[in-house]
Amino acid sequence: MAISMEIAAMSCRLPLSSLIPPGLAVDHQESADGILIVTASARVQVAMCPSCDRPSRRVHSRYHRHLADLPLAGRAVQLRLVTRRFRCDGLGCRRKIFAERFGVTAPERSRRTGRMEAIVHHLGLALGGRPGAAFAKRLMIPVSNDTLIRVVRRRARKPLDPLAAVGVDDWAFGRVPARGVARR
Fold first, then answer.
1. CA 62 – CA 104 distance, rounded (Å)
2. CA-based nearest residue to 134, from 126, 153, 77, 114
3. What pLDDT is stored for residue 6 in this prediction?
4. pLDDT one-digit tens code per residue, 44-68
5. Phi then psi for 70, rounded to 5 degrees?
6. Is pLDDT above 80 for 5?
7. What is the four-CA torsion angle of 129, 132, 136, 138, rounded to 10 degrees?
8. 81 neighbors 64 (Cβ within 8 angstroms)
9. Nearest C-alpha neighbor of 117 from the set 131, 97, 101, 103
10. In the predicted model, is pLDDT for residue 1 greater than 50?
11. Average pLDDT in the 93-117 region?
């Protein structure tokens, strides 16, 4: 019976590349202080210039982005993303060097992966600030109550239709005094 459990445990192994966001390839993994650190890079060899949309293969340099990802088996996961800077060869393009973009996988200037950001957004919508932060802590997603509210506000939709009419209650020429207060 012990042998069959050992075989069952061996057959359930998942490659780490199936657990990270799509479009990335795992380069290295390590564990430090109970945090699983996964170093990954993009699978594609070409990046598009964000200004002129021309493809580029000329790598200028590399740097690391550190993103929080969803926890795995009770352990926090940090995604160390190797980001390449490319040279743009467009003659009319003002941007000579640009960093590759990862889309919804790792939005630009983001500290969390797109899928973790979605969970933080839903926690903020469902529970709000302080209760959402307490529940997120139990889920091993380190966010503060202010962060939850900030994410909800950032993803809020702007009104699509322009304001058609202004009602009496919506706008006034001056301040109306409270009852019982004499005007000077």
1. 20
2. 126
3. 42
4. 899 999 989 899 999 999 999 999 9
5. -60, 145
6. no
7. 120
8. yes
9. 103
10. no
11. 89
Instruction: Give the angle subtended at the CA of 90 by the CAs of 85 and 91, to the nearest 5°.
Output: 135
**Nearest alpha-carbon partner for 38 in 12, 73, 66, 74:** 66
pLDDT tens, residue by residue, 19-32: 778 888 889 889 88
Q: Which tokens in the block code for residue 157?
A: 């939709």
Report how far apart, in Å, the C-alpha atoms of 102 and of each of 50, 54, 65 are.
Answer: 12, 16, 12
Tokens of 101: 């973009």
* 8 Å CB contact between 120 and 141: yes
65, 12 in Cβ contact below 8 A? no
- Residues 81 and 41: beta-carbon distance below 8 Å: yes
